[in-house]
Amino acid sequence: MIARVWHGVVPVEKAEGYGKYLQDSDLGVRDYQRVPGNRGVSLLRRTEGDRVHFLLISLWDSREAIKKYAGPDIEKAQYFPYDRECLVDPEPNVQHYEVLVASGAGET
What is the pLDDT of residues 44-69, one digit of tens each? Predict the structure, then answer.
């Protein structure tokens, strides 16, 4: 199993709206969940002064499954207009990790 990890930072005044966007829009968590091969998604948030960090961790059966979501270059982050409106210096890439243990996520 592969974990795909995306990190983004928004100004604190945009954090509430951006968090709802990631949770509820068809371009965030729901988008991941409807792709075959997705095994789960976690959305985390941390406030640090006047900035709020979001961490989106999705679990996938394989790199091939990630390609169904991200396209052929799975290392490239996906951004949409509202992301670009909110994010401070969007990171161009995401990180991928081989999952060794994932409690509650099934066999690895």
Answer: 999 999 999 999 999 999 999 999 99
Domain residue ranges of the chain, discontinuous segments joined by +: 2-98
Residue 7 corresponds to which amino acid?
Answer: H
Instruction: Name the token pair of 15.
Output: 């954090």
25-to-71, 104, 105 alpha-carbon distances in Å: 20, 25, 24
How far apart CA 39 and CA 58 sit, in angstroms, is 7
pLDDT exceeding 70 applies to what percent of the chain? 96
| DSSP-assigned letters across all residues of 3-33 | EEEEEEEEEHHHHHHHHHHHHHSTTTHHHHH
What CATH code would you report for 2-98?
3.30.70.100
pLDDT of residue 11: 98
Q: What is the CA radius of gyration of the chain?
A: 14
> What's CA 62's distance to the chain center, in Å?
16
Which bin fits 98, alpha (ψ -120 to 50), beta or left (φ > 0)? beta
